[in-house]
Amino acid sequence: MIRHGNLHKGQSTDTKSVDELRTNYQTLKAGLKAYEDYMESLIPADKELKDLKGVAFDAQTYYLVQRFYTFGLTVGIILGCVLSAFDTEDTELTSDMNSFADGIMVLAELSKMFKPLGSSYMQLCFQAAWVGTTDPSVKALAEKEMIEYLADFETGYTVERLLSELERVSRHLRLIDPYTK
């Protein structure tokens, strides 16, 4: 859809792809809600550690589910960005993407205990949160976290390059510019 953006440019009237994308987006939203409910159900009701082995398994399962949920939020932002390029009047998309970005940033705190390697996936999630949100405070927090993660991995990737590429990816996901080097 992104590569062949003829519909976005007004050169095509075939809306089947957009309808399919909207259906997939709505399905993802419903799945994310169910996954969030499941993730919350894994948190033990009582705080006592009666069965240490069981609690350890539940914690391990919880953090695995949390990772998948965070990736789901990331995919939601990506689909929302593309869909919002076609439907600029849908304010629910903006609200959803802000909510997804907020969710990523809340879960970022919990993932910090697994730094650096166990939470390396968060860099992608922070980028999606930065691209998807319209809230300047969430954008600033995502940027701060990305910079911290850059320092953890010492790849030589500069902050300036990161921000430049984020801006380019944002424009690409919203079908403003083609993705070229």
Structural description of this entry:
- With 181 residues, the protein is an all-alpha fold.
- Helices cover 70% and strands 0% of the residues.
- The protein contains 6 helices and no strands.
- It has helices spanning 16-41, 52-86, 91-111, 122-132, 136-153, 159-173.
- The protein is flat, with a radius of gyration of 18 Å.
- Mean pLDDT is 82; it is low at 1-6.
Task: Write a brief caption for the model.
The protein has about 180 residues and is mostly helical. Helix content is about 70%, strand content about 0%.
Q: Which structural category fits the helices and strands?
A: mainly alpha
The largest β sheet comes out as: none
Cα-atom radius of gyration? 18 Å
Straight-line distance between termini:
19 Å
- Overall geometric form: flat
Averaged pLDDT: 82
- Report the uncertain regions: 1-6
**Helical element count?**
6
Helicity range: 55-70%
Order of H and E elements: HHHHHH
Count of β-strands: 0
β-strand percent reads: under 5%
Throw out a few tags for this protein.
single chain, 181 residues, mainly alpha, 6 helices, 70% helix, flat, disordered N terminus
Write the layout of secondary structure elements.
Elements: H1 16-41, H2 52-86, H3 91-111, H4 122-132, H5 136-153, H6 159-173
